[in-house]
Specification:
By secondary structure, the chain is α+β, with helices and mostly antiparallel strands. It is built from 2 helices and 3 strands, in the order βββαα.
């Protein structure tokens, strides 16, 4: 079963460090797919991860769901 988790990165922009959040699709300890720097808004990414897990989104739709949510 796939579990989606939040990832955190740091991005350097004009001498400032910004926290960005992404999502990894995991199967056990293995990362199947990952998208970094989705947003600087952690609550947006948390909500997105909750939706991905609640609806048990298949891996083939992972990127499409992210794009759809970003375009809302």
């Amino acid at each position: 079963m796939i579990k989606y988790i939040i990832t955190e990165d740091k991005l350097n922009i004009d001498e400032a460090v910004v926290d960005t959040y992404g999502i990894s699709a995991m199967c056990g300890e293995s990362t199947l797919k990952s998208v970094s720097d989705i947003s600087t808004d952690m609550s947006f990414v948390v909500e997105l991860v909750q939706k991905l897990n609640f609806f048990e989104v298949e891996l083939c739709h992972f990127y499409d769901v992210i794009i759809d949510e970003l375009n809302r």
